[in-house]
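can u do me a favor
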């Protein structure tokens, strides 16, 4: 069985399918579990751009670009003009990273950020945008499962060809 949208779905078994790896039985749907936050220093809520680069793996150029296009909310500045990121900014960057992994276009991510800044009156529009992205992700997952089945079939074919008795031609 596969859990895609919070419900269990049967997956057809085929003679060529590989055994599935055992999954932890924590009872938690991995799709709905919150990501583990990057460990941050306790009691600190102000980070330089270089610290954020180290925490997120994003480049300083990408962080500045996110800010310039409106994907990153207003980042505070120190008295010398240096960017000072907060824990809330880091949480937002984790979420943006998840949106990137979904394949959501940058324009849609910026639109989501704009809707977020507009407030509660945009809940429905934000939900629709996320639901559309979710449908796209589910479609991609199904395509990847089909692709994996083809790869597994080919791998098993080649593994079987190596162990088959040699054929002698006349």
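np, heres the sequence
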């Amino acid at each position: 069985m596969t859990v895609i949208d919070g419900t269990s779905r049967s997956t057809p078994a085929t003679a060529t399918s590989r055994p599935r790896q055992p999954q932890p039985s924590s009872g938690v749907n991995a799709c709905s579990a919150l990501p583990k936050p990057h460990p941050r220093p306790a009691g600190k809520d102000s980070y330089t751009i270089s610290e954020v680069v180290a925490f997120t793996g994003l480049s300083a150029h990408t962080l500045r670009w996110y800010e310039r296009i409106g994907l990153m909310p207003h980042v505070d500045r120190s008295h010398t003009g240096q960017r000072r990121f907060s824990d809330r900014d880091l949480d937002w960057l984790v979420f943006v990273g998840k949106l990137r992994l979904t394949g959501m276009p940058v324009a849609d991510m910026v639109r989501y950020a704009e809707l977020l800044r507009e407030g509660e009156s945009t809940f429905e529009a934000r939900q629709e945008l996320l639901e559309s992205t979710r449908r796209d992700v589910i479609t991609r997952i199904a395509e990847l499962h089909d692709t994996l089945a083809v790869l597994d079939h080919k791998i098993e074919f080649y593994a079987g060809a190596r162990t088959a008795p040699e054929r002698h031609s006349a």
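The helical segments are 49-56, 60-69, 87-102, 106-118, 123-163. hope that helps!!
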